[in-house]
Structures are given as C-alpha cells and as structure tokens.
Design brief:
alpha/beta, Rossmann fold, 7-stranded mixed β-sheet, disordered N terminus
C-alpha cells in the first residue's frame, strides 16, 4: 500500500511539473488559446537574444502585454513594427481580449522579418501588418482605437499624437516608447509637454526598462 501510494504521489508530481512546463490551461481558457500561449512563449524564449533593429526589451514587451489584458483593449495600433518583437507581445495579449493589431513599418526588410516572426509565433491572424510611411498612412486611418503604441521617429511623436487622439476612444491610451532620456531623444520633451497640457488627457511615465514608456489616457466622459 505504501509503495502504491508513493508511486501515485510521484506520478501526480510529474503531471503537475509537466503542466507548469507547458503553461497549464487556466480555468475557462480554451484549448486553442492554451496551445497558442505555449507556441508564443516558446518562440519568445528561443529568440530572446536575437532582437536587434531597435526592438523593445522583453521587460517592455511584458508590460505591453499585461497592460492590454488588464484594460481589455481590443483595437490596437502600432507605429514602428521593426522586426515584430513588440507586436508579438501585443498581439499575444489581443488574442486573449479578442482584438487585433494594426502595425505600420516603413522599412521593407524589417517588415518582411516581422511577417515571418508573426507567422512563426502563430500570431499572424491577430496582426494586420502594413508596409509604408506612417506620415502618410496614419492620417488615412479611420479608427477608432483604444490603444496606440508608437516607437518610431521621436520628432514626430507630437504629430502622431495630434492626429490620433481624436480617433482614440475615451478610456483609451496613447503609449510612446523611449521617453526617459530627453537629452538625446529630440522631440520627446515637446510631445510630453503638449500631452500634459491637455485637460482631457492624463499622462504618466512607467519605467519597465530604462527606455521608459509614456501612457497618455484619454479621460472618460463624465
């Protein structure tokens, strides 16, 4: 009896460890979502040292994923895809909230790599990746959006903000990357000063990494 009990305890421990290793399915989570979570997690782990081309850090990516899930955002826009690191984290979050990401990249080589990375991570159905100049494409976007993430030309942050704020729903957020080092990021201070001057916007800066991400929330109507 003792031997059988010991075997049962051992098998139970092995099963629990296996569930943790693959990312156990959370209560109410579909099998498809659980499988996607494993695929994305494995992709990010296997590529964690390969992100170049001005991609965000894993710490910033984790923040973006958790932030989108926390607020239940579903209509997201990214300016500056690079090779897709930030987009993968956001699309992963949107796979949970039932949303989708539009992501714009101007460089054809980076765009092609991003497409390949989205496919490899299993997230291609959650990303509408577009190749083109955001200066030209953003004014044509209809919206509305509840989350915008900008990691592109810093001297255009204020312009992107002005163009997109009317298309962001109340309670939505405009997030901008690389806002900590104002001395070397030309245009960021002007953008932050402008955002903080608006009575219907509340702006804070979080430092999930040394880069800093500003969060400008469009206040909800009373």
């Amino acid at each position: 009896m003792r031997s059988e009990a010991g075997v049962l305890r051992f098998l139970l421990a092995v099963a629990l460890l296996a569930a943790v290793a693959v990312g156990a399915q959370a209560p109410g989570q579909s099998e498809d979502q659980a499988a996607l979570d494993v695929r994305v997690r494995n992709f990010l782990e296997s590529h964690r040292s390969q992100w170049r081309d001005e991609n965000v850090t894993a710490a910033d990516g984790t923040f973006l994923r958790d932030f989108i899930i926390k607020h239940g955002y579903t209509r997201a826009l990214e300016i500056g895809t690079s090779t897709g690191h930030s987009g993968i984290w956001m699309a992963w979050a949107l796979s949970r909230t039932g949303g989708k990401l539009i992501s714009i990249e101007i460089d054809e080589g980076r765009y092609a790599k991003a497409l390949a990375n989205f496919r490899a991570a299993g997230l291609e159905n959650y990303v509408d990746a577009r190749l083109g100049d955001a200066h030209e494409l953003v004014p044509l976007l209809e919206g509305p959006y509840d989350f915008v993430f900008v990691d592109a030309d810093k001297d255009w942050y204020q312009n992107y903000f002005k163009m997109l704020l009317p298309k962001i729903v109340p309670g939505g957020c405009f997030a901008a990357h690389n806002v900590s080092n104002l001395e070397f990021m030309h245009g960021v201070k002007e953008f932050l000063d402008y955002a903080r001057s608006l009575p219907d916007v509340e702006t804070t800066v979080v430092r999930s990494s040394g880069s800093g991400i500003s969060l400008s929330f469009k206040k909800k109507l009373p």
